[in-house]
Amino acid sequence: MASGQMSRDEALECTCCRHACHVLLYSETASQLFGRIPIRYIVLMQMRFDGLLGFPGGFVNPLEETLEEGLTRELLEELGVAVPVSKEDHVESCFSPPRSGTYSSSSRLILHFYVKKMEEEQIREIEKAAASTAADHGLEVLGMVRVPLYTTKSGGGLSCFLSHSFIGVARSQLMNSLLRLHLVSPGDLQEALRSSQRTHAESAQNLQAAFKLTGEQP
Ligand code: AMP
Ligand code: MN
């Protein structure tokens, strides 16, 4: 078990901790981008209310429900579909890294992460429901997004996606899952990360220049 991680049972022993469960839903697909780039897998994330990318899920109260019942309840609110998640889908539990200035030992947050493979048709149903019947649509969730796993000729795809801003440890959860599930090879991920750092540096320059739009000098 990696450092900072704990088993599901150990995590549940902390009754004064807050608990949150999130899930990566994915499926295989035969679709091809521009009719030639294999998409291979649909991996779902969401644009959150705070403008950060994250996984569907949320706070769960283990005194009132099992982690998986709580996660399924959260998914119904955010996706508009009751996606049953079970103990077998659990991947890891860990303390959320404390954000500077907000650390409080009495209310530490434990994150439980799940991964569930689905059929492509089920993923498409979720995407439809998330944009129509989901109670949280346009509120806590601004939209579902698919993670591009490929790299285009101009270097776009996974590398650009990874250069966005993510909630907490969501970027690591995504990358760990891509490797563990063999959706991306370590070499390809390394290459995407290298390119992502360049994109990130360019974005920083763009942001600096954008100050001019506000009439202010950077
Ligand atoms: P949510 O209701 O989905 O925002 O999640 C419940 C809590 O977990 C909030 O405090 C979030 O900031 C936090 N959270 C959500 N996703 C992650 C993540 N991937 N890593 C760390 N914290 C997260
Ligand atoms: Mn949520």
Automatic annotation (TrEMBL):
Top-level taxonomic group: Eukaryota
Could you say which EC number(s) this protein's record lists? 3.6.1.64
Which of the seven top EC classes does this enzyme belong to?
hydrolase
Family in the record:
Belongs to the Nudix hydrolase family. NUDT16 subfamily.
Q: Pfam families given for it? A: Nudt16-like
Domain Nudix hydrolase span(s) in chain numbering: 16-176
| InterPro entries assigned to the protein according to its UniProt record, in alphabetical order | NUDIX_hydrolase-like_dom_sf (IPR015797), NUDIX_hydrolase_dom (IPR000086), NudT16 (IPR054754)
Protein name as annotated: U8 snoRNA-decapping enzyme
One MF term in GO for this entry?
phosphodiesterase decapping endonuclease activity
Which organism is this entry from?
Poecilia formosa
Cofactors needed by this protein, per the record, are: Co(2+)
Location in or out of the cell: Nucleus, Nucleolus; Nucleus, Nucleoplasm
Q: Does the keyword Nucleus apply?
A: yes
Look up the record and give one Gene Ontology term from the biological process aspect.
sno(s)RNA catabolic process
Q: What is the lineage of its organism?
A: Eukaryota, Metazoa, Chordata, Craniata, Vertebrata
Reaction catalysis annotation = dIDP + H2O = dIMP + phosphate + H(+); IDP + H2O = IMP + phosphate + H(+); a 5'-end (N(7)-methyl 5'-triphosphoguanosine)-ribonucleoside in mRNA + H2O = N(7)-methyl-GDP + a 5'-end phospho-ribonucleoside in mRNA + 2 H(+)
